[in-house]
Specification:
single chain; mainly alpha
């Protein structure tokens, strides 16, 4: 991967990834505030300004390193988690479900919105799809409208991809992921306490599930789910681009 391609990948992916993680975190804090916990609001985290949410390592260094190291095949990153004090919630166990589910739900809504915009642009100018693929032809670049719309379409594809990835990945029912917190809120008290007790080991379990892929957890379940969801939202196979 040459430097020009790296710069192009970063320019197309950076804004969609940043917006996806920011909206995800703000959604947690916004719902928590509505349910009685003002922690995120008092700390100035209910804002779409990216600066309070950026983690230098997780938001900048790790994604760029992975983009270069894997030639764009795998990128991972994270923002600073929005602080939530679940004990401040009016009904801590029940409201935990709403707070945890707010992030993935917001990502799913953003993916659908970006997919709708993608479909609308292609409905107006269907020929643009030919120029989204590498080597699709230089003719589009002589059209000033296409010069603007092609990068927008590529960014919308990235936006759908990352919002779907965040929504599905975070709903894996292992704490501290959002799905794990939803599970803790849904289970009866004894089982809920037992399930929440695995949180200190949660990230190690998740890493093992992704890297070791036991029982085809990632390759046969999560990855096809992400791909099918993206195809349903965009109306095309995004992996052709």
């Amino acid at each position: 991967m040459n430097i020009d391609h790296i710069v192009q990948e970063i320019s197309i992916s950076a804004i969609p990834i940043l917006l996806a993680v920011i909206f995800h975190e703000v959604a947690h804090g916004w719902v928590a505030n509505k349910r009685g916990d003002p922690t995120a609001r008092l700390m100035g985290r209910l804002t779409l300004n990216p600066l309070p949410h950026i983690d230098p390592v997780g938001t900048v260094i790790i994604p760029i390193f992975l983009l270069i190291a894997t030639k764009g095949s795998f990128v991972f990153g994270y923002a600073k988690p929005v602080p939530v004090n679940f004990m401040n919630l009016r009904r801590p166990k029940e409201d935990m479900i709403l707070v945890a589910g707010a992030g993935p739900a917001t990502n799913l809504l953003l993916a659908i919105l970006c997919g709708f915009l993608f479909r609308m642009i292609l409905a107006i100018n269907p020929s643009l799809i030919l120029h989204l693929r590498p080597g699709g032809g230089p003719s589009a670049w002589s059209d000033p409208v296409a010069i603007i719309l092609i990068p927008i379409l590529l960014m919308l594809i990235e936006a759908v991809k990352w919002n779907v990835v965040l929504a599905i990945f975070n709903m894996i029912p292992i704490p501290p992921l959002d799905g794990g917190r939803v599970m803790v809120g849904l289970l009866p008290d004894r089982q809920s306490e037992a399930w929440s007790s695995i949180e200190p080991f949660g990230f190690f379990i998740i890493i093992a599930l992704v890297l070791l892929d036991p029982f085809g957890f990632w390759s046969q379940i999560i990855s096809p789910l992400i791909m099918n969801m993206m195809m349903w939202i965009l109306g095309i196979n995004p992996f052709f681009f």
